Amino acid sequence: YAMISGLDAEQPDWEGATDARMATFAKGYWTSYCAMRSQVSLAEGGQLELTPGYENDLPIRVVSTLHELTVRSVNAAPSDDLSSRDTAALALIDQVDQVGFRTGAARLAESLSIALYCEGRSRDTILRLADRLAAWGAEFPSQRFLILGQFFSAIAQNQPPAPSWLQAMANRTAEAPRESRWSRALLSASNTLLGASLNALDRSLIASFQKWHPSWRIRPGDCGYGEEPAWGLDVPRQILWRSDGSEVDLGSAPLLWALVLSVFQGVGDKEGLQAVWGETDYHPLKHDNRLRLSIRKLRELVEPDPSKPIYLLTTEDGYSLGGRCVALVPVDTDNS
After folding, report:
1. How far is Cα 240 from Cα 311, in angstroms, rounded to an integer?
2. Are 328 and 236 in contact (CB under 8 A)?
3. Where are the domains of the chain?
4. pLDDT at 181
5. Quick check: 278 and 258 in contact, CB under 8 A?
6. How far separated are the first and last CA of the chain, in Å rounded?
């Protein structure tokens, strides 16, 4: 969706308009990708009637006018009264739903959820809309609305979603390309995607996530680099998440957690890893076997196939991390 200040051309510059205006309700119009002046005029002239069941053969460009009419209705509220604007938009969603055009109501709820989140307000409203989107998605069925509802239900909570949850969402590139892209960016240490473009809406949502969850800090590990993280460490919870989004709780194995955290921080040589046991002097005959046993236990816990490790690799000097990895760290420990 492009959020623009007006429809003054039959072929608007959507990317430029999206970059120029992310504040949907402050002023201007809110339209879908293909609404043009002619369709807006048609709907305003009363030639579009909302009757039960008409969505079966409704042209896509007429559907688009519903988005435009939403903002025309919302703009009737005082320009400085955001609460009234929200109420007007929610009322129109209910109206469209009640006349039988449930997919249209879901599209309006989708746009309103994104707008409210990017504006950084109305948490309760976003969560209610997320529940409705998920319910509509299950009813239609529609993976688009179901996954979007699940995504907003996760990112609008008081606490951010677990990085393992975002990793699982990041893997759903085929069925949820937009939410996958957002998740991959949120798991990136720089909130960007190498080799992929983020549009204005992507950038706005990611920036808003940081405002909603100021404690969210992602740091890169001492490992391979690529377009996106494939696995990582949830430091506050002492959990390692795998590339498939599954979790391994290492909180009950503090020594093993200390080992993997040390390697993540770039200390993977045998001499350096002895500090995990509180010892500074390295003696091969004394320490090598103990270290090998600990690494084997760690691999048995975290590796899909311990005989073919992909996360904890053996090097000439000790051990290193494989693949691409990041860590969610407490704010007070992120001094970078």
Report:
1. 10
2. yes
3. 2-158, 219-333
4. 92
5. no
6. 36
Best mean pLDDT range from 53-57, 130-134, 223-227: 130-134
> In 10 A of CB 196, how many CB atoms?
12
CATH domain 219-333 topology = Arc Repressor Mutant, subunit A (1.10.10)
DSSP secondary structure string for all residues of 230-282: SEEEETTTTEEE-TTS-EEE-TT-HHHHHHHHHHHTT--BHHHHGGGGT--S-
pLDDT average, residue stretch 179-203 = 79
Return the residue matching tokens 């990112």: 155
Place of tokens 């003054």: 8
Inter-residue contact 177 to 169 (CB < 8 Å): no
How many C-beta neighbours within 10 Å does residue 294 have? Answer: 18
DSSP 145-188: HHHHHHHHHHHTSSSPPPHHHHHHHHT-TTT-HHHHHHHHHHTS
**Residue with tokens 């391979």, as numbered in its chain:** 224
Average pLDDT value for the chain: 76
Mean pLDDT of 107-136: 91
- Helices 143-155 and 102-119: angle between axes, nearest 10 degrees: 30
At residue 270 the predicted structure's pLDDT band, cuts being 50, 70 and 90, is confident
* Residue 25 or residue 13, greater confidence: 13
